[in-house]
Design a protein that fits this description.
Number of domains: 1
Structural class: alpha+beta
Strand order of the largest sheet: 1-4-2-3
Low-confidence stretches: 7-43
Number of helices: 6
Mean pLDDT: 81
Helix content: 40-55%
Number of strands: 4
CATH topology: 60s Ribosomal Protein L30, Chain: A
CATH superfamily: OmpA-like domain
Shape: globular
Strand content: 15-25%
Largest sheet: 4 strands, mixed
Order of helices and strands: HHHEHEHEHE
Distance between the termini: 71 Å
Length: about 170
């Protein structure tokens, strides 16, 4: 009986500690998991106009369907926020990186990665971002965000990532 009471005490303490996760940590974690879609009032320690600011407060990546370079509605929403951010920081130059999952030949993935980066670039330019501020590069499947196999992994690797290349004075 004494052993059962100790076990109940340990379980109760574990439950209490698990419930101590603060709301601000949950909000920040959720924002990072959703591609950085956190309101601009939650800049954390990111310097305004920096790559960390873009990732944390705007979202620095968009995702694509298999063998596709068309922008989804969700991707367009992220790029809308990126365009507004780029207009707010006119000295910032970016590189759009196109990525693929591990399936397909190297040549196919390099071409698909280029199409993905160029689709995101064209959308930003159509929203009024100066084309000279945006470079593109394709990495194909060479730089996966997540290692492994299966759709949950592959879907995270089919992406275009906006990287701050230079911020002028």
């Amino acid at each position: 009986m004494n052993m059962n009471m100790k076990l109940v005490g340990v379980v109760a303490a574990t439950i209490l500690l698990a419930g101590c996760h603060s709301k601000s940590e949950t909000t920040a974690d959720t924002g990072a998991m959703s591609g950085g879609d956190v309101s601009s009032s939650q800049t954390g320690s990111a310097i305004p106009g920096s790559e960390a600011d873009l990732a944390q407060n705007v979202g620095d990546r968009v995702f694509f369907d298999l063998n596709n370079s068309e922008l989804s509605q969700e991707a367009r929403q992220t790029l809308d926020r990126q365009a507004a951010w780029l207009k707010r920081y006119p000295s910032v130059r970016v590189t759009l990186e196109g990525h693929c999952d591990e399936r397909g030949t190297r040549e196919y993935n390099m071409a698909l990665g280029a199409r993905r980066a160029n689709a995101a670039r064209a959308y930003l330019v159509a929203l009024g971002v100066e084309s000279g501020r945006i470079q593109t590069v394709s990495y194909g499947a060479e730089r996966p965000a997540v290692l492994g196999t299966g759709e949950s992994v592959w879907s995270q690797n089919r992406r275009a990532v906006t990287v701050v290349a230079q911020a002028g004075a």
